[in-house]
């Protein structure tokens, strides 16, 4: 128990005020026993007589009850003060706060509780195996990690493991010195923005886009230009001809369209960056999950001008609860980034870093990726088959051959239909998410962004059957007016 | 193994180039066996004949050696490309980066390796008990934390535990809704700066000061005004009369002077904030460690105008490897802070949050604080006694009655002496840290910032004896010219 004296007036009054305060705000619970007068006097550094007198006043004012033999207790219903009125709102205190307040809600973060099947993107694939493996690695790390924090740039053993892994599996030449550990993709974006972009400078993003990237750059004060994506990825020729400071792209598997940036586009993008002098932030968030053939070369591995910052994350490849990712930065930017990381939050969790390093070094990480890729492939196939079987001609699939999601367009539906569909599905325990939230302008045709990572094949079968039923009901309602 | 084809020219040339590249940059190690032609062909999605032809060229160019029965291996000394020259430096790409580059090194982060006794501030107290307790809590959390991340504002159970703890032990009335979990003090400072301060606005800091706070606000673009600290804490009357946007203070135990802000000063500070309309960032980084009498009331608990953001950390009270702290924010700022946290890095580690929540709820945290306070008290007493016994009249102690450090002034020494002393001590295995790094202007009198948390009482006895020897040698050298 803690009582703070406020130093105003005599000591007895101070002790009394502090006790009343403690009772009124519930820190001294109704019916609970107050400390002995001797004990409280020692703790507050006042005489015992002062406390005795304060307790007497407290009882007199009906805040407490003294019983011989059982000390003084807080009264069962002490007098109440009126609740303080809610403070008035204050205007945004910085331009950053002003921009933050004008941002729309992040729809991907919104999750319905208690759904039977959730086809929203963002739900992770959690097989029992990875959960057990991660837990074991974490326990090992907890037992072997010292009391000290990791360096700001990251734990050396994790940086080495990441460099080795990227060299072997993603064709990226780098050493531990090139790797900066961060708390996931979001921090990578925020740090890159700080060291590369001033308020009012232009950042190019893809359209459709990843909400949290758009929001981070907008809040940062950048002028965000969304450039459309076609079958070959971002349309490089549609980028502004000058004044671009940074382009944020997801070439392995564009989010959310699923498109893979073609090699000619990659070359064009790199050439533009070199010529115009802008930076590329390459988010390879699920480059590890390609089903058909080899994953495309990362922009970073094709870059000869040192213009690409490559970012990766373990949140998507392992578990959402893991807050770790990394930046492979061109040498001239590295110190700026490490210092920005230090000033942002000093360093990442040492235990999580050690645990991920262990997963990679023991080979468990690669085995998990292989297993996860196979399983994701099965789930995607089940989703495609289910959509085909139950929704048939009403849906049109944007098939990208990888990752954890696809877009399901519904060209015959209006947005009124779509909203009715989502509401109906939710009421029947099926979570759906409209893809329009990832476009700056509502697409002509309504569609769903479907994540297939979180559901097993039987669950996907049931979920698509349910989707078919809901769809039939919504379309039926629409075609037969009341 | 990963080989990226670059898409230029015919497939065989592409495969050959990719193999050579892999050998030259070491991804295909000297002497290692290349994959079978069948295997590689499948992985690259090319015909087996293409791979066979590429392997033949590889051997012809002496990059590899084919042996019948053992496949093709990388040559023992493959031809070398010249190493790429280091890229030229680039100028700072944002005003933030420019400011970051102009910052001095953070001296507290610099640590000498292999010292026998380290009296530098920043070394933690690590007793075996807390290490075991923390590890156990972490293992429990790893076994009970789901795959999902925590909410951006923080795990509800941790926020509740913190609110309860602060109510009981620090006199702070708050509920879980008021608590925002962050990655420690540094992130609390960075987020507060983002939502409260624009470039060019004035932030008041104490002098002497905490380096990383000064650097964070400077990098952020604030105009930093250092205001002197006297025996009662920051001299409120010396603050600028207007134009202050935020004041960052450490009232419980000023860093590094150790001064406790007096109650009249607290009142004056709060009144000024209310009148002038600035915000107070109250860093209670070691408010839990007070030795003599009760800890002073937090500014937050005295604040009636909703101007105080209170920040605390578990890094100092538990272990440096733990990246968790919290902000208790006035209601009107809370949404801005949570959104800023989300855009900065989404959320904190769920496992660490669950582990700390468990430590608090089981009572282990409070027991640890009590034990640690007792032990720190002993260590401080040993340091004071050792300095008295071995350095006697040469030192003058700034005694603050709390925390983990004190300042030891050496009025008879020059800075030349002090530097010689630090160098000599380091050579004999004793780590010392000059306090001048925490002043904007070098103090007239040289001194040491001494952390006493990391050494046991016997170690402190030995360390102070060694300090006495070094001091005698340095002063002796100075008084007897060669």
Question: Your description of this structure?
Answer:
Chain A has 482 residues and is an alpha/beta fold. Chain A is built from 16 helices and 15 strands. Chain A has helices spanning 11-24, 37-44, 48-60, 95-101, 128-144, 156-169, 185-196, 211-220, 263-276, 299-302, 314-317, 331-345, 350-361, 364-391, 415-427, 457-479, and strands at residues 64-67, 71-74, 117-118, 179-182, 202-207, 223-230, 233-234, 244-249, 279-283, 308-313, 325-328, 396-398, 405-409, 430-431, 447-451. Chain A has an 8-stranded mixed beta sheet with strand order 4-11-10-9-8-5-6-7, with helices on both faces. Chain A is globular. The interface between A and B is large, with 104 and 104 residues.
Descriptors:
homodimer, 482 residues, alpha/beta, 15 strands, 43% helix
Concise overview:
Two copies of one chain form a homodimer. The first copy, chain A, has 482 residues and is α/β, with parallel strands linked by helices.
Q: Going across the biggest sheet of chain A, name each strand in turn.
A: 4-11-10-9-8-5-6-7
What fraction strand of chain A? 5-15%
Report the end-to-end length of chain A measured between terminal Cα atoms: 66 Å
Oligomer: homodimer
What characterizes the major β-sheet of chain A?
8 strands, mixed
**Rg for CA atoms of chain A:** 29 Å
**Proportion of helical residues of chain A:** 40-55%
Poorly predicted runs of 5 or more residues of chain A: none
The number of helical runs of chain A is 16
Structural class of chain A: alpha/beta
Largest interface: A-B, 104 and 104 residues
């Amino acid at each position: 128990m803690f009582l703070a004296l406020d130093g105003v007036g005599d000591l007895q009054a101070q002790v009394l005020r502090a006790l009343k305060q403690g009772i009124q705000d519930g820190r001294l619970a109704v019916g609970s026993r107050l400390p002995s007068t001797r004990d409280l006097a020692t703790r507050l550094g006042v005489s015992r007589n002062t406390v005795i007198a304060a307790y007497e006043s407290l009882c007199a004012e009906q805040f407490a009850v003294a019983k011989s033999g059982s000390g003084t207790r807080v009264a069962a219903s002490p007098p109440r003060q009126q609740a303080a009125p809610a403070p008035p709102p204050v205007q945004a205190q910085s331009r950053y706060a002003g921009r933050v307040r004008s941002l729309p809600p992040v729809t991907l973060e919104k999750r319905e509780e208690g759904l039977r099947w959730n086809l929203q993107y963002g739900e992770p694939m959690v097989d029992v195996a990875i959960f057990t493996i991660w837990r074991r690695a974490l326990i090992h790390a907890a037992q072997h990690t010292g009391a000290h924090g990791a360096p700001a740039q990251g734990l050396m053993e994790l940086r080495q493991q990441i460099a080795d892994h990227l060299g072997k599996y993603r064709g990226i030449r780098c050493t531990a010195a090139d790797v900066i550990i961060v708390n996931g993709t979001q921090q990578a974006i925020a740090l890159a923005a700080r060291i590369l972009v001033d308020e009012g400078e232009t950042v190019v993003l893809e359209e459709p886009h990843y909400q949290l990237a758009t929001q981070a750059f907008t809040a940062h004060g950048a002028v965000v230009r969304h450039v459309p994506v076609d079958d070959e990825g971002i349309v490089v020729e549609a980028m502004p001809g000058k004044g671009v400071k940074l382009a944020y792209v997801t070439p392995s598997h564009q989010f959310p369209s699923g498109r893979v940036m073609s090699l000619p586009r990659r070359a064009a993008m790199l050439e533009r960056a070199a010529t115009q002098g802008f930076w590329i932030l390459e988010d390879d968030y699920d480059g590890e999950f390609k089903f058909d053939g080899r994953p495309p070369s990362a922009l970073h591995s094709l870059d000869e001008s040192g213009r690409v910052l490559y970012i990766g994350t373990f949140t998507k490849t392992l578990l959402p609860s893991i807050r770790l990712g990394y930046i492979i930065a061109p040498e001239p930017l590295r110190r700026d980034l490490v210092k920005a990381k230090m000033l942002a939050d000093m360093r990442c969790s040492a235990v999580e870093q050690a645990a991920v390093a262990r997963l990679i070094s023991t080979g468990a990480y690669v085995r998990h990726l292989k297993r996860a890729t196979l399983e994701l492939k099965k789930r995607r196939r089940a989703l495609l088959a289910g959509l085909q079987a139950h929704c048939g001609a009403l849906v049109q699939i944007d098939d990208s051959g990888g990752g954890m999601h696809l877009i399901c367009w519904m060209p015959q539906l209006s947005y009124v239909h779509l909203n009715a569909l989502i509401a109906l599905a939710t009421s029947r325990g099926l979570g759906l998410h409209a893809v329009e939230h990832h476009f700056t302008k509502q697409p002509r045709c309504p569609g769903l962004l479907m994540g297939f990572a979180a559901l097993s094949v039987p669950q996907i079968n049931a979920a698509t059957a349910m989707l078919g039923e809901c769809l039939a009901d919504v379309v039926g309602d629409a075609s037969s007016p009341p």
